[in-house]
Design brief:
InterPro entries: Signal_pept_SipW-depend-type. This protein has one domain. With about 240 residues, it is α+β, with helices and mostly antiparallel strands. About 10% of the residues lie in helices and about 20% in strands.
Length: about 240
């Protein structure tokens, strides 16, 4: 009987490890780089055309102090003292009980967005010296002020104040001003005008320091200035 040499048997664990090792080598052997198509798309902020799509608006207000407020008479004056109001006759020769009036019209400039206006209280006009002609501000504190406004009427006289709703400021000339809520609207692009009427009165019994008589007001003069603060409103395209 021939004898055959018995082959050494691999254990199950050895076979498993060999298989895994072979599989690992096989897996590495088939690794490949895959090609792919590519494409890009761009957009730019160009609005509806080929130009810029982002930018800023402009807001500018202009004034006219000469009735009947022709369009060519509007101008910008952004620093104190501004344009010279034209008061009704007698403004430089007041006696107790007298009242004088002065109008002004404001609007946005062409190309401007819409906005609002808020009148501020008076302050001395730049380039004038109230103290030299009104020592201790006696006349300034004695005079009273009312301001009325309208979006439709340029009239500036006693009838302007007949409707209480039109009056936005009343009190001493030195301090009278509207409340923060009493703003007036201006349409964009010069398409609306807001008219204001200043009424200044020297009362028959003005406010004076104790011991001072009304005669102490003779020969005095004051030059108040007022600022209109304009604020743009958001535009919707």
């Amino acid at each position: 009987m021939a004898l055959h040499a018995e082959r050494p048997r691999m254990s199950r664990r050895t076979k498993t490890m060999a298989f895994l090792s072979g599989g690992l080598v096989l897996g590495l052997g088939v690794t490949a780089t895959l090609a792919a198509w590519t494409d890009s798309e761009w957009v730019f902020g160009g609005g509806n055309g080929s130009g810029p799509g982002l930018g800023t608006s402009t807001f500018e207000v202009e004034q006219n102090v000469v009735a009947p407020f022709a369009g060519t008479g509007f101008t910008q004056s952004e620093t104190n003292p501004g344009q010279d109001l034209t008061f009704s006759p007698g403004a430089l020769a007041l006696i107790p009980g007298n009242t004088v009036y002065a109008p002004v019209a404001l609007r946005t400039v062409a190309g401007s967005v819409a906005g609002t206006l808020l009148l501020q209280d008076s302050e001395p006009a730049a380039g004038t010296a109230n103290a030299a002609v009104d020592a201790n501000n006696l006349l300034l504190n004695a005079l009273t002020l009312r301001v009325a406004t309208s979006a439709t009427s340029a009239t500036c006289d006693a009838t302007t104040f007949a409707t209480a709703a039109n009056v936005i400021a009343t009190g001493p000339l030195a301090t009278a001003e509207p409340t923060a809520a009493q703003v007036q609207a201006l349409a964009a692009n010069s398409t609306s005008v807001q008219y204001y009427c200043f009424e200044i009165t020297l009362p028959t019994a003005p406010t004076l320091p104790t011991g001072t008589t009304v005669d102490a007001l003779q020969g005095r003069a004051v030059t108040p200035a007022w600022e209109f603060v304009g604020t743009s409103v958001a535009s919707v395209n």
